[in-house]
Amino acid sequence: MKKVKIVAGCVMTFALVLVAALSISSVANAMVEEDLKEAHHCSFVIPTDFVPGEEKDLFLNRNYPMESSMIAYNVLYNGNDIVLTNREKEEHPESIAEAVVDNTEKLTKDKYLEIMSESYNKAYGEDVGLSVTSFENVEIDGFPGYKIVSEYQKSGEEKIHQIVVIVLSKYRTFTITYQRAEDDDCEALFEKSIATIHVK
């Protein structure tokens, strides 16, 4: 197993998280938005073992590249609280949800697995065997969301473990992704960080 391969994939993984988060956000925000409260920001404590990476909102283990664990954060806007011109929509497609969403549909374990499997298999060029080991509905400061635990493994590399926390609000979806390789000893740090998540 080559740790360096996993480390080299950190930025790609972060990009995948962003792409998948947009799709997930579109489904997750299909909850009746009138029932969701407005939120202006999400905060959480980054463990001292992690430092900012080159990508915005990406935090890498301070022992990188020996340790490949990472934390990624993003916030997606559904666009319902702002009016964008067609040009602005083209320039900032990540700021608006998909145009057509079934308002009766909610994010499910199967839907999440479908979205993430497609993204990761396409990016890695093989079936990485993504499996969802836990899918929980959670509530943080009165805002609904999900805590999803999954794992996958690319050929010749260590197994990757992920915890994704998604928090929904009227206009914003907050996604925090915690990722570690099989031999990275930071699961307890991740859980402590998750316990500090707050939305206002």
TrEMBL record:
Residues 1-30 form the signal peptide. Keywords: Signal. It comes from the Bacteria. This is PsbP C-terminal domain-containing protein. It comes from Butyrivibrio hungatei DSM 14810. The lineage of its organism: Bacteria, Bacillati, Bacillota, Clostridia, Lachnospirales.
